[in-house]
Amino acid sequence: MIVYLLSDALDELLLIGGSILAGLPLPITALQILFVNFFSDSFPAIALAFEDGIDGLGKRPRKLARNLFDPEMRFLILVIGFFSSAFLFFLYYWMIAAGFAPELVRTFIFASFSTHTLFVVFSVRSLEKSILSYNPFSNRYLLVGSGIGVGLTACAIYVPWFQNILGTSALPFLWIMGALAVSAINITAIEMGKSLFRRKNINS
Length: 204
Hints:
Elements: H1 2-21, H2 30-40, H3 42-47, H4 61-64, H5 71-97, H6 102-120, H7 140-158, H8 160-166, H9 173-203
């Protein structure tokens, strides 16, 4: 849960900070950030409290005493936060420079940011094992929580009442596929980071 929440906060900080330094309009508004943090992301974060212990934390007390910010956790936080925010920033910069409608671009960034945090949570259920080695959907609370988050994000993009409040616009199908592709790229980066530390532990 710590990796999930801190990487999310770092993602927001770097994405917005980079845009300010580059002199660009903010890629995501304050209301959109609040919507993601307090509505979309809160359900998966709560669901992580019902984890069965994929990493065997309950059976290995030694793990409970490990430094919460050991090298692996710091690396994964940076991977999720810095890599994803840098990737989104360059997408944002390119789309603005290419002349796409700013409202459409901001909605794409919002959708990418929201879906990224909703799907990455299935990868960070375990910091030691590959997502391919366990059933990422075995936590039904997490599955329901992420489903609610996806539904809320869809409402924010396509329901007129939410569009007026959050400043979003309906995204074409290909743009939604692009937002999902961002999530897939970030999950791949996380899994590569986990694999790197697994190999390091085997060799040490």
